[in-house]
Amino acid sequence: MNNETSSIFDMAKAMPSLVNTETLRTAAPFKNLFPIQETTLNRIISDMKRFGFDSGHPIVIWAGHNLTVVDGHTRLLAAKKLGIDTIPVVLRAFEDEGKALEYAIDSQRNRRNLTDAELLRCLSELDNRKKLGRPKGGGVDLGKSAEATA
Predict the structure, then answer these.
(1) Is the peptide bond before 29 cis (omega within 30 degrees of 0)?
(2) What's the sign of the alpha-carbon dihedral 99, 101, 102, 106?
């Protein structure tokens, strides 16, 4: 962990911190969960040109996971396209990738109307991380994985 990363983790987790965009990492499954729509990206770029990066909507990164972006990929790309070097981020601790995905999906769901295809893709990503198995006996009862995803 470099000095900039260390100093970020020393700050209060609930307060936004300013971070250089180049230190943030985008990775699957988060970067592929909601593909960036060109029209949305262009609207955000237009807003950022007029008002700057809105610190009321910081990028959410997974604390302790190599500064991986969990939520805010479109805003991060818009900032980079505009040459904005430093943006606000909030560090969040997650138990595991499944919990981080749940957070990302909930955040998106609460901000926009998801299409059925987007919602199905999200549910598939979540279900892929659940422990497999059905109750013994071969009945049609749903297992814990299906129950948790639902």
Answers:
(1) yes
(2) positive
CA distance 21 to 79: 8
| Region of residue 10 (phi > 0: left; psi between -120 and 50: alpha; otherwise: beta) | alpha
Say what the pLDDT of residue 84 is. 96
What average pLDDT does this structure show over 123-127? 77
Residues 68 and 65: their CA atoms lie apart, in Å, by 6
Q: Give the whole-number percent of the chain exceeding pLDDT 70.
A: 73
CA 105 distance to own-chain centroid: 8
Nearest to 125 by CA among 66, 68, 70: 70
